[in-house]
Design brief:
With about 280 residues, this protein is an alpha/beta fold. It folds into 2 domains: about 190 residues, Alpha-Beta Barrel (TIM Barrel), CATH 3.20.20.70; about 60 residues, Alpha-Beta Plaits, CATH 3.30.70. The protein contains 9 helices and 12 strands. Strand 4 and strand 5 form a beta hairpin.
């Protein structure tokens, strides 16, 4: 089983992704394309470049990115700042390595499970009595199945508490194996309306609901926190919220939470050369 995967961030001292103080490991790659995604750099499973134009020091003072690019994908605007033609870019990442201002940066890197847990364990003073630990997030962790399971096994080896944030869109066999190594699972259920779910996320909700029901049957003692992000125009009606509440009614192993919508990821879309559609 591979212990090598691709991540794009390790967030230390988190208080909102499980009990106690936690390190959150963000895995790259997701099969869904939620219009409101606040981490668009998580969707592509491979490392990629982002570009913050305001940091560019310009062609006269620098220009290294253009000299490095073998695809002629970089030009300069009237103010001398770099412009990236994403249709020509082959994502070789060389320009980022030659940008002294860090205006162009690489989103994501490969790492071993052991390296991740060595980083997480630096905060081990906070992991006591099953309070605190590591939360695996994404992207969608189920998309990197071998790496996910290697991370969870390594965490258990280090006696570190485990949690996972998932949208549930993946192979149930992976979710089932992960459940054996988890203390808590955060499970997104965005809408029970399949047509709207397809339109706003790019995928059906059928597999998500099926996997959740199987998970409840197979692991009734595993704490499950169902999260519903409230998105304007998609699922922000009382009816939508009540449908999910009713679906979860009388489930003692489940806690239901709603998450407020925010625009914190808007600038990331610009940096990736993409448009935010919400």
């Amino acid at each position: 089983m591979s212990s090598i995967g691709t991540i794009f961030n390790i967030q230390h001292y988190s208080l909102h992704d499980g009990s106690g103080i936690r390190a959150v490991v963000f895995l790259k790659g997701c099969s869904m394309r939620c219009r409101w995604c606040c981490n668009p750099e998580s969707q592509n499973p491979q490392p990629e470049i982002s570009y913050i134009k305001s940091k560019c020091i310009g062609k006269v003072a620098c220009g290294y990115c253009q000299k490095t690019c073998q695809q002629s994908a970089i030009s300069f605007d009237s103010r001398g700042r770099a412009v990236i033609d994403r249709s020509k870019c082959d994502n070789c990442l060389h320009c980022a390595g030659n940008c002294p201002a860090k205006a162009i940066r690489i989103e994501g890197w490969t790492v071993t499970a052991e390296e991740v847990l060595n980083e997480v364990e630096k905060e081990s003073v906070f992991y006591r009595d099953n309070i605190g630990g590591v939360t695996i997030s994404g992207g969608e962790p189920l998309d990197q199945s071998d790496f996910l399971l290697a991370l969870l096994r390594e965490a258990k080896k280090h006696r570190i508490g485990t949690a996972m944030e998932t949208c549930g869109f993946g192979h149930y066999d992976v979710l089932k194996q992960a459940a054996l190594l988890l203390d808590t699972v955060f499970y997104d259920i965005k809408s029970l309306n399949d047509e709207k779910h397809r339109k706003w996320t790019g995928q059906s909700n059928g597999l998500i609901i099926e996997n959740f029901q199987k998970l409840r049957t197979d692991y009734p003692d595993l704490p499950k926190i169902v999260r519903m992000p409230i998105i304007p125009g998609f699922n922000d009606s009382d009816e939508e919220i009540e449908q999910i509440r009713s679906f979860l009614q009388d489930k003692s192993d489940v806690t239901f939470e709603t998450l407020p919508y925010h625009h914190f990821g808007a600038g990331k879309y610009v940096a990736l050369g993409r448009k935010c559609t919400v």
